[in-house]
């Protein structure tokens, strides 16, 4: 991997960037690589740059670091670009959510059936989707052979959008499939003996194959449900893999939902805080309640504060904070290692459904599936057994429709599309309500360009 | 066509049956055919039998008639079976609707996005869908080579269901595409010079091709909208082809919806009576309002009363009531004539999407498309230009999902599926509401078998 250049867009998210840098340091053959850290927030950028350089030095890794606030400069000569930027940050997410709540849309208009994750905005996020394409189109000019590792949400919409409207090789990255390990651990299974597959869309994946020592392991899950499920309590708002919501979805759909898919159930689990508590546990009612999201905001703030503190206080031993023997669970660096150095690995990635990999889903839709990666490229596994018809028809089909509607709105502009999407939202009581909330969101100060783009056409 | 046997299931619907009989009388080569009228309502059956025989005699047609309350007997030796039966009649529709309204579902739970037609029940209609399959399976045993002309609603769900679960040749029949003639007439166009195509699903079709004297006729529609649309008033609740709803759908989707597709817009047009009046005109607010449906019930009652009167009063000249020179606009008899006598014709029929006829729709879904029929069979036209992406993604995709959900519920049983469908309904405010309304419907006296079928599985 000697001599590769990695550009991290939105690198100011310090913990995430340090994970990547740490993984790179611990990867044999990365010697001589350079990392360009890019963010428009200079304070965060400086802090993460300092930390990254000190951590690499402490590990004795031969890596070069640069920092820049200029995306185009960052991707110059890049072999891999990781886009993890959240345009406008959480402040804009909060403002959009508040605008929605003023008009009767609890948790904002982007909280939708099968997509309740609170920073996975697909409707009010013009700036974010536009930036996705901006990165890709700049790459076409500046580093046309580089890979784009799309890590910023919404990964499903983003990966599909970029792969349709750009020639850049794009892969969507998430880590939700590690939920399989939580299932295995909960049942007392040795993960090394578990033969598993997941398939679906990002944040919408299902445990299609689940064998333990070559035998169907679902009966073991049934036993756990009978004997252990009532004792379950969440450790934090994101701890939902074995929650009543997950079990209820499993009982209805016949397969276990994995990772953030559990947050993305139907309104049944999200009607109000009491419902959320019932299905995702006390006291928070999951990550996507006011309580759970406040917890997460505090967590983010604490992380950022900590990274500032680590950057300023040179007496702190970074190797203690980030143990050198442990790889992060992010897939990015092992993926690069597999592709460049042939260090073959199995990943769960978001790629266009060419083949198709999942039958009866169009080939220009990004699916999240297990793949083997080596120097020859990305080799999707055959999904066997296939996704059950009920999951295809009752879960993935409406989720795919929502993706298409969001992209239709974004690509075409015209606020009537957003209005029509909201007409299909159970929180909408009248067409006037849908009109009013869209106008409210378009009037937000950071949505000036969006407002122009969404003028009614013809 | 000599010697064919036609079985009409649900023949007690006198006006419809007399249309078919009249068409048959007026079709050369039908001489010697026999018609079996089947209904469980003996009073209606006797009346329609009397009328049919007298009308055929008045026309000098050589047709034989039989009547029976036994479906199996009726289809014995049949070449064509027309199923037009509404199991339980309007009384059961009304009871199901009332059960829905008790729990906050105005117009009943079956009134759904893109499917607001008040007798097109897909959820509470176990008895109806079950009868569809019963007819088909009896045909497999008794007249396996006969064609099943599926005329009873829901035609989309029914045709798809029967074609998936039976080997019988099934075609879905409707007449909604004649709305094209209303568009042409409204614009002052000679229909003979209009080159048109429609495509979609039953009650969900769009004017994909619209040429007048070989030139795009949509600009003529735009002119009409600018100059004439504001003067439009409905003549009856069903007169909606040029309504504000139709125009609004055209402006959003880029093509004109045709026939009952206009009733099947989104909630925007159906939130409440005022919305319905705005979009479908005063005073009724379209056919699917309380007012419009009451009008229709009166109309049906008057038709039935009239048919009884005609049957009893032999002094009435049937040729005056049903002029011999006019064919009804029902497609059934001309279709049979084309297939049997090679009297080639163009029809708009519901057939499985083999080919596919409409790309990206599975081949086991029934589509409504123009076809040429002759002695060799049914030849679908190439749909050109294709359906626009917005119609595919924002209208047909969610409508298809609803069809799949309804069939999943019907085929699998398990009331949790019905509950989950209602969770996706904007009228549902809590899961308990969805549970309660389903239990209410399952408790209706005519749903005993349905209730058993829908017990929670596992």
Automatic annotation (TrEMBL), chains A, B:
A biological process from GO: carbohydrate metabolic process
Keyword list, A-Z: Carbohydrate metabolism, Cobalt, Glycosidase, Hydrolase, Iron, Manganese, Metal-binding, NAD, Nickel
- Which one of the record's GO molecular function terms can you name? hydrolase activity, hydrolyzing O-glycosyl compounds
Positions bound to substrate? 153
Q: Which domain of life is it from?
A: Bacteria
Q: Which residues form the Glycosyl hydrolase family 4 C-terminal domain?
A: 198-428
Per the similarity annotation, which family is this? Belongs to the glycosyl hydrolase 4 family.
Q: What is this protein called?
A: Alpha-glucosidase/alpha-galactosidase
Q: What is the lineage of its organism?
A: Bacteria, Pseudomonadati, Atribacterota, Candidatus Phoenicimicrobiia, Candidatus Pheonicimicrobiales
């Amino acid at each position: 991997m000697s001599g590769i250049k990695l550009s991290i867009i939105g690198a100011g998210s310090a913990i995430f960037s340090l994970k990547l840098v740490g993984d790179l340091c611990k990867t044999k053959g990365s010697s001589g690589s350079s990392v360009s850290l890019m963010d428009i927030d200079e304070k965060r950028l400086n802090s993460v740059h300092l930390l990254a350089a000190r951590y690499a030095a402490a590990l004795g890794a031969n890596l070069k670091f640069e920092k820049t606030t200029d995306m185009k400069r960052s991707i110059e000569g890049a072999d891999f670009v990781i886009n993890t930027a959240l345009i406008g940050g959480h402040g804009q997410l909060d403002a959009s959510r508040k605008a929605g709540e003023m008009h009767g849309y609890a948790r904002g208009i982007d909280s939708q059936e099968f997509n309740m994750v609170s920073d996975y905005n697909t409707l009010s996020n013009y700036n974010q989707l536009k930036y996705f394409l901006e990165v890709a189109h700049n790459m076409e000019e500046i580093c046309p052979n580089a890979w784009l590792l799309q890590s910023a949400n919404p990964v499903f919409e983003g990966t599909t959008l970029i792969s349709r409207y750009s020639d850049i090789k794009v892969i969507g990255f998430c880590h939700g499939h590690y939920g399989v390990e939580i299932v295995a651990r909960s049942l007392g299974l040795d993960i090394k003996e578990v033969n598993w597959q997941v398939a679906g869309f990002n944040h919408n994946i299902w445990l299609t194959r689940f064998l333990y020592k070559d035998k169907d392991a679902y009966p073991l899950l049934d036993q756990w449900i009978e004997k252990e499920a009532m004792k379950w309590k969440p450790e934090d708002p994101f701890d939902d893999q074995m929650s009543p919501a997950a079990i209820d979805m499993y009982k209805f759909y016949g397969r276990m939902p994995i990772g953030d898919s559990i947050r993305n159930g139907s309104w049944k689990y999200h009607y109000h805080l009491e419902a959320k508590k019932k299905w995702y546990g006390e006291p928070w009612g999951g990550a996507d309640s006011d309580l759970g999201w406040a917890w997460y905001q505090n967590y983010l703030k604490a992380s950022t504060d900590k990274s500032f503190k680590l950057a300023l206080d040179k007496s702190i031993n970074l190797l203690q904070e980030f143990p050198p023997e442990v790889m992060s669970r992010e897939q990015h660096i092992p993926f690069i290692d597999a592709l460049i150095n042939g260090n073959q690995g199995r990943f769960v990635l978001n790629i266009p459904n060419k083949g198709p990999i999942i039958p009866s889903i169009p080939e220009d839709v990004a699916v999240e599936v297990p793949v083997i990666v080596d120097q020859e490229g990305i080799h999707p596994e055959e999904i066997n057994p296939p996704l059950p018809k009920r999951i295809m028809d009752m879960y993935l089909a409406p989720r795919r429709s929502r993706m298409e509607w969001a992209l239709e709105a974004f690509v075409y502009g015209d606020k009537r599309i957003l209005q029509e999407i909201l007409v299909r939202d159970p929180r909408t009581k009248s067409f006037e309500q849908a009109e009013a909330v869209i106008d409210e969101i378009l009037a937000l100060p950071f949505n000036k360009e969006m407002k122009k783009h969404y003028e009614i056409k013809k």
